[in-house]
Please model this.
Amino acid sequence: MQLRQFIGLTLTACACASCTHRPDPRVPRGYPSSYSEEIDAAEREGELDILSATDQRKAAGLIALFRQRYPSIRVNYVEMSAREVDDTLRAQARAGHGTADLVWSAAMDLQMKLVNDGLTRRYVSPERRPHIARWDNWKNQAWATTAEPVVFVYNRKLLPDSEVPRDHPQLRAFLESHPAPGRLKLATYSVANSAVGYLYFSQDEQVSGDFWRFVRAMGTNGSDFYPDAESIVTAVASGRAALGYDVVGSYALDEIKRNPVLGMVVPRDYSLVLSRIAVLPAAARHPDAGMLFLDIMLSPKGQSALAAEDMPPIRDDVPGPSALKPQGTPLRAIRVGPSLLITQDRLTRIYFLRKWSTALVSGVGARGQGANATDSMVTAARH
Model:
């Protein structure tokens, strides 16, 4: 073979080899080339089932981003309360016919219990570093996706801005100085009937040395208790309550944009920071599709989609809403980890609710209505 022919054949072979190793355009920059295999597997699955306690409207940007990138995968997004999400996933696992592929919930303690009970699987996302803090995921099985301060909301017609409590001690003093019956009531979660509410209150107890006096003040005020944030904000907007306590800031901002009667305070002494946790169930019917969606949730574009819905991102390289980044307010992140399991212990929960009942009853002066209401909370906790 002549030298010229040999060189020509060699160059042709090299060119063909370079064609076969051309990067897959579906693989995001910085991801391993083997990620194309996960994409292929997910596209063969053709479906993605999500159980979520987040309003689908606020997840629309994420879903649109996923559909744009993987148009052949059908997305089924089922919205429920946090407790229903947990119950549904567990029922699916017991049935043994496969489960949803991703579970997304703000009930951080319930999500961690799924991990602890062996119902989730480990996945090392290519997005895990460097812009996501290590404490925002637990052993690559529970992933924080947002960092959302918890706030007060108030009715501007009932309370002028100048009279609104700006921190927890001021709120407690306000409740004590406005006893029932009266119009200036507080609306908050039913600690026995709201998974997220129970999480917030148990975290408040750890942060504040004044917590049980605050609960007594709720009894004095004749505060009303609701199963979810939507009901709390509705009570405040309608004037049935003047203040709403422990409402996640993203939801509060969303409602304020629609209804100018509502105002919001990020408490200046401290604000709990909630994370919506995503987990990948161990028995997922479409495991690869679940992994792709988690990676999009954690990616800069996915985090920007969440920020556009007023959900502050977990990434430090994606800006969030300025209204939820107040200067000087200590932010107390509820960390993703096994410490969240403490409050899920059955005896711990019953003890907490009994103490809650006692504090509320003492606040209302042991009136019959208050005793009956709080006793029902303890009864609910036992079941």
